[in-house]
Structures are given as structure tokens and as C-alpha cells.
Amino acid sequence: MAYKIGVVGDRDSVMPFKLFGFDVRYANTSKQVRETIESMAKQHFGVIFITEDASELAVETIERYKSEVTPAIILIPSHNGTKGIGLKAIQDNVERAVGQNIL
């Protein structure tokens, strides 16, 4: 089974991902972000990239999928720059896997 890759966030931040053939969805409200993640998960997306700004609108939904194999939800900076949320999540995962923060 080939998994799809999706990108969720504000229009300016996610529009360029269309060039790579990713399924791009615009979401600016908490409800839109949550419903988009749920919809992509049901459609068997393997990876969902979500802007840090949008991720703050759906923290509980994202947390629920952290223990699942798919979809992998990966935080990316918005066009306004990074808030460090995505990097912190990666550091936490590495620390949990290795036993210490090697980054």
C-alpha cells in the first residue's frame, strides 16, 4: 500500500508543497485543523506535515496520534519562521529512544 503525504496549515505556508505533489489542505481554525487531521488519518495518509502554528490549534488530536504508527505527524515551521516546537518534539523523541538528548 502506498501512503499519501499531506500538509496542513495556512495557505502561504503550505502552498509550495503542492509543487512536490503533496496533498495540501488549508486550515486556520481549531475545528478545521482537527477535522483535517482526522480525515487524513481515515484516508490512510502515512505522513502529515503540519505547521507549528496550526499544531497549536489541535494539540489533543496530535497527541492522540503520537502512539500510532501512521500517520506520522511532523511539525514544520510556518512562513513566519519557527517557534521551536517541532525541534523540541524531535529532541524529546530522541531522548526517549536513546535515553539522553544527543542533539
From TrEMBL:
Keyword Transport appears in the UniProt entry: yes
GO molecular function terms listed in the Swiss-Prot or TrEMBL record: ATP binding; proton-transporting ATP synthase activity, rotational mechanism; proton-transporting ATPase activity, rotational mechanism
UniProt entry keywords in alphabetical sequence: ATP synthesis, Hydrogen ion transport, Ion transport, Transport
Protein name according to UniProt: V-type ATP synthase subunit F
UniProt key word Ion transport: yes
Family assignment from sequence similarity: Belongs to the V-ATPase F subunit family.
Protein's job: Produces ATP from ADP in the presence of a proton gradient across the membrane.
GO BP, sorted A to Z: proton motive force-driven plasma membrane ATP synthesis
